[in-house]
Amino acid sequence: MLLSNVLDAEPSRVVSVPLTLHVADAAAVMKREAVGALVVCETWGRYRGMLSERNLAVAIAQHGRDLFRRRAGELMWANAPTAAPEDTVEAAVDRLLEKGVRHLPVLEHGKVLGVLSLDGLLRRLAGNAQSSAMNTRHLAA
Question: In which domain, by residue range, is 118 found?
């Protein structure tokens, strides 16, 4: 199954913040929107990276109180893994597991189409496997 099919079936909500947003404000957005990661964009909306709970935890250890003077663009993961709509769910899961992250932005021409979670993709794979097994049993009967 392609990621474009996943996004069509279950549109994901993209919560984004500008590069210049202070970290405390970014954390408040995470809390308000109940998300574990934010898409960080340039002023005109072009994708630049991801800011996750993990980024914030590491930054607290590195910067202490100075953290709150920093901006999202300073702490984001600019080389965070991304995917394209034509990538498969299996390839996306492999990429997330390889990099040890839970959120995968799906990009097309620099525009974020959605952010998929590892949990959601694994549930989809498990559902597909279960459907496939049921179809096999039905054909064998």
Answer: 3-140
